[in-house]
Structure formats: C-alpha cells, structure tokens
Amino acid sequence: MPKPKTLAHTTILILLYTLTACDPTQNRIYEYNLNNNERTNNNQPPLHWNTQLAQQTQQWAEHLAQTQTLTHSHLTPPPGTHQITENIGYGPNTQTIHNALMQSPPHRENTLNPNATQTGIGYATNGNTTYIVEQQTTP
Description:
By secondary structure, this protein is of the alpha+beta class. It has helices at about 1-20, 25-40, 50-65, 95-105, 105-110; strands at about 50, 80-90, 120-125, 130-139.
C-alpha cells in the first residue's frame, strides 16, 4: 500500500513545482528573497516591496519578453520615491539570472546599494527565456 501514497505524493510535488516555476508572482518573490539574502549577507538592510514599482517593472519585463530585447526602461519612479538603480537580465530561469547579476560588479553594486530602501521586480517569459527587471529606490 505505500506505493500509491508515494506515487500520489510525488505527483503532487511535481505539480506544485510546475505551478510555482510558471507563476510570475512566485518567481518575483523568489528573486526578492535572493536579493535580500545578498544584502543581509553583506550587512545591508533588506529592501521593502513597493507595489507600484513592482507593477511598473512587471510591465517592462513583459515588454522585454514580447519584443525579445534587453534594454533599460527609464521608467518614472512612483510618486514619493527616487529611482536609484535598475538591473535587467535574461536567461533560462530566475536563479541563473540572479547568479549572473551577482557576478557582474555593477549589477551587484546596484543590488547592495546602501541607499536603496524599496524594490520592485518584474518577471516574464517567452518560450524558454526568462526576463527579470529589478529597480531599487529611496522614499
């Protein structure tokens, strides 16, 4: 009898993994947590999520995915904030893009900027390519 339970359990785990891997919100949160872990490991305070900024970066990430381009957005920061930095990247998945950004000194510096207090992250895909847009601001 254990095999049906094990099979059912495995099927549920695969389904949950598949749903999470395809869910833009989950991937945005994953990148947010990766960035804050980097900041914590480098004695910087965590960034707070800015919903308006997240909406803007999401729209830009979707634009990049639709046009299959990689260009900075030049988005206007939400009222009451000042944009400091923007990281954009593409690759097969969120973790790979994050690793590449952290290995690039200017992008790493953006993520660890001590003046940044808020962030918004956009995530979109086109086929097997993932696009991420991150912006950090101060209030």
